[in-house]
Amino acid sequence: MSFIDKTKIYVKAGCGGKGCFSFFFNKKVAKRLSDGGDGGKGGDVIVKVNPNLWDLNHLKFQRHIKASNGVHGGSNKKHGKNGADKIVEVPQGTIIREAKDNLLIRDLKNEDTSILVAKGGKGGIGNASTKSEAKVPFEGEEKVLNLELKLLADVGLVGFPNAGKTTFLNTLCQTKGKTAEYPFTTLDPLLGVIWHKDTAIKIADIPGLINDAHKSKGLGDLFLKHIQRTNILIFVMGLAKTDPLPWDAFKILKKELREFDPKLMGKEYFILANKMDLPGAEDKFKSLEKKIGKDYVLPISMVNKTGIEDARAKIISFFQ
Ligand SMILES: Nc1nc2c(ncn2[C@@H]2O[C@H](COP(=O)(O)OP(=O)(O)OP(=O)(O)O)[C@@H](O)[C@H]2O)c(=O)[nH]1
Ligand SMILES: [Mg+2]
Fold first, then answer.
1. Which of 201, 181, 185, 183 lies closest to 193, judged by CA?
2. Which three-class secondary structure string do you get for 235-248?
3. Ligand 1 atom showing the smallest separation from residue 187 Cα
4. CATH of the domain at 273
């Protein structure tokens, strides 16, 4: 099952039920009186955050979403039942736009938020109220909506493929992301959590980037939107012989981020220099530290399990 962060849906609210046109003969006053009841209101379509959802996959085969129509009014002033609302559940961080002009309807950043996206039609008024003709009901609103998910993580891991991003996340947060010695092992974003007192700090691992990712090289920059909302970026560098030189990698990564969204460069960041267990890593680390400064780089090894607590403390320091 692949991670889906973009989809289009058609929503249609319910129509109002018809107002009833009917009479009864009142013997007491020897008169024909109108007694047609009003139609029920059509159901609304509501988009609601479900914090347990991770992506938009569940809407893949549910593109047409309709709320129920209101029931027609009846004789004896019987009011038709309102149509049931339809709730569309989405993950937190979903942005809703109207497809025709791409105008923002709502950015569902907060938990338990919901928004009415298509209003049900009013029911028709029966002749008991109008005293003449019954009034016709209203149609329910219909819209085509673009839904786009941008994960709400606090920290984003970026790096070349194979740098050890997922291994780091798995070690720090006990996630179960797939890791392997070949590039592009991670194909979908992965989220891990560490705790600081009562605060959950969410960390997002995204697929690896390479030079010209913004020109769709490798997996491209498709996933960079998922780190747009983070406060901090962690550049993970592998220091193995087969990994690109860390300083070069850092420059390329910064270029790719800037090409995608210059605001990404305004975020706080630091580098994790990984695979310190390997021969030659120490020299690479020292040269990187000299260039970027002590405060911006931490040595770690996921094989020797070193530097993990320093990395955790460094992350937490941004949230104090
Ligand atoms: N020697 C050594 N190998 C490591 C270390 N950390 C990770 N690796 C290995 O490096 C390879 C890549 O690790 P991943 O965690 O899959 O790397 P990634 O950055 O998530 O890679 P992509 O998902 O392809 O972008 C795996 O074979 C890991 O076992 C480390 O500290 N030392
Ligand atoms: Mg990975």
1. 201
2. EEEECCCCCCCHHH
3. 23
4. 3.40.50.300
* Average pLDDT along the chain, 320 residues, taken 10 residues at a time: 90 96 89 93 97 93 96 96 98 96 95 93 93 86 97 96 98 96 94 94 95 90 94 98 96 96 96 98 97 96 98 96
- Domain containing residue 90: 6-149
Taking the CA of residue 301 as reference, the ligand 1 atom at the shortest distance is: 31
User: Contact at 8 Å (CB) between 257 and 226?
Assistant: no
Ligand 1 pocket test, pick from 165, 176, 179 with the greatest ligand atom count within 8 Å of Cβ, gives 179
- Ligand 1 neighbours, Cβ below 6 Å, are 159, 161-167, 179-181, 183-186, 207-208, 274-275, 277-278, 301-303
**Number of domains observed in the structure of the chain:** 2
Task: Check whether residue 178 and residue 144 sit in a common domain.
Answer: no
Which atom of ligand 1 lies closest to the CA of 207?
Answer: 25
